[in-house]
Specification:
Length: about 500
């Protein structure tokens, strides 16, 4: 084990940073993230085509998200056992073929099963693709690498309503999946060319008890979060979430004592990685609620059309993209701690200001506020994505990457579930009488307060946290001048 890890470390140090590889992996992430939410806009059309209630179609989204969540924990072992290149290419192929099966589905059952297969491919694409990029990236270039990997998670939730609505309106819901075919084929061919070959470890054993407990725990938590947002009145959401938490606790206890655990939990001893699991989890949870809350407030609260709301929400996308070239210089100039504190405080402020919006607020001001919100969101995402690996040693990289991907998936689902729960709470309290947007205002204010919890965690970070990554890469050494001959000695001809 130690010999293999040293070999990995030496091989990684010799590899060069590859922007094209990072861009390829980011593109596959975008497909996976987009397909997690894009189907929402097509539910009425699918319902009509299959002659089933619209509420029943939600099972296709739940099946996809659940499969992705429970498939992530085993992805790290698969990459180690069979080689990251082989598993990544297989994941792209499965995702692409399953997308075709989704488009050809003639009933809800077939579509749901096809979405499960699609989710299985997505569950391997995200963590294994990240692992491929991280292994070939030196610490000094980690900020640049994560800048590529962060944008799919930022843009997909914002663009999904626009892209899904356009495809469904002007073509058909089938094109939501058909568009993945040329993209998937191109990604597969590019992966064969760009992803470095790595030999698998045939002796790597699978921790079956750890896998069972982790998969059960993650699955139960995801189901609980889904039930909390769709059926909050029943007891099953709480029961499922509690069972999931208990199973994950059992998994942790087991893996601490196992000789060959599924994850190396020593990664949590690293403060910069632990920041992703504490303040970073809260940050992603609150940020993930915005693409859910904004369209609802604009349509149900302000009475805007879906197109009007979609265009306004696109301002978040503009902020994400606009600030992206500046995120790396900002982190290098001020450090991770300062940027994380700033991003969380600024995001909390934008949440509070969103609660003050009304239909009479000038559109320019609303648009500008959402652009700023997208910019702060991008800074925070980029900072957490980089700082979590800043002090991770090569031997722990696979475990750190898989644990991170699992927590990101849970935080994203928790953001939507918590937002939906807050809307129902404030609606039931009647805190904003005579205001259709009142429950959404309350939800935004609550999210602003919750965001401050991530600020506290960031304030407690060491001053120079992640300095090995945030420092600029050293410039190539200049050619040394030829030594002058010693004084009083004639130069050699």
């Amino acid at each position: 084990m130690a010999v293999r890890d040293r070999a990995h470390a030496q091989g990684d140090a010799a590899k060069a940073w590859s922007p094209r590889l990072a861009l390829l992996v980011a593109a596959t992430f975008f497909m996976e993230f987009l397909d997690g939410t894009i189907l929402t806009t097509a539910i009425p059309n699918i319902s009509a085509d299959f002659s089933v209630p619209a509420a029943d179609v939600n099972i296709t989204m739940t099946a996809y998200l659940l499969t992705v969540a429970i498939g992530i924990p085993i992805s790290g072992w698969l990459a180690e056992r069979f080689g990251a290149r082989r598993i990544f290419c297989l994941a792209v192929a499965i995702f692409t073929v399953a997308s075709l099966a989704c488009a050809l589905s003639q009933d809800l059952t077939t579509l749901t099963l096809s979405r499960v297969a699609q989710g299985a491919g997505g569950a391997m694409m995200v963590p294994v693709g990240t692992l491929v990029v991280l292994r070939g990236t030196p610490k000094s270039e980690l900020l640049r690498a994560t800048a590529f990997l962060v944008w799919p998670g930022l843009l997909a939730p914002v663009l999904a309503p626009l892209v899904g609505g356009a495809l469904t309106t002007y073509l058909s819901w089938h094109w939501i999946f058909l568009i993945n075919l040329p993209l998937g084929l191109a990604a597969f061919l590019a992966a064969l060319r760009l992803v470095p070959t790595s030999a698998g470890d045939k002796g790597r054993r699978l921790d079956w008890p750890g896998l069972f407990l982790t998969t059960l725990g993650v699955g139960a938590l995801v189901v609980g979060l889904e039930l909390a947002s769709s059926h909050p009145d029943g007891p099953w959401a709480g029961i499922s979430a509690a069972a999931g938490a208990a199973s994950l606790l059992a998994a942790v206890l087991w893996m601490r004592r196992a000789s060959n655990p599924l994850f190396n939990l020593d990664v949590f001893r690293t403060r910069t990685f632990r920041a992703m699991a504490t303040g970073g989890f809260v940050y992603r949870l609150t940020i993930s609620s915005v693409p859910f809350l904004l369209p609802l407030m604009f349509q149900a609260g302000f009475g805007w059309t879906p197109i009007h709301a979609g265009i306004m929400v696109a301002a978040v996308f503009i902020g994400n993209i606009g600030i992206k070239p500046a995120t790396t210089p900002l982190i290098r100039r001020f450090g991770f701690k300062a940027m994380l504190v700033f991003a969380s405080l600024a995001s909390a402020a934008t949440f509070a200001l969103c609660a003050l919006l009304t239909p009479e607020t000038p559109q320019v001001l609303t648009f500008a506020l959402l652009v700023c919100s997208g910019a702060f969101r991008s800074i925070g995402f980029s900072s957490y994505a980089s700082v979590q690996y800043a002090d991770i040693v090569p031997a722990q990289l696979t475990s750190a990457n898989t644990v991170s991907a699992t927590l990101v998936q849970l935080a994203t689902g928790a953001g939507i579930a918590v937002a939906a729960l807050l809307i129902r709470i404030f609606d039931g309290l009647g805190s904003f009488p005579q205001d259709d947007a009142g429950p959404y205002r309350g939800a935004f204010l609550a999210m602003a307060v919750l965001m401050l919890a991530s600020t506290v965690d960031s304030v407690l970070l060491p001053r120079h946290a992640g300095a090995a990554v945030s420092r600029p890469a050293p410039e190539p050494a200049e050619a040394q001048p030829r030594p002058r001959p010693a004084e009083g000695r004639a130069p050699r001809p």
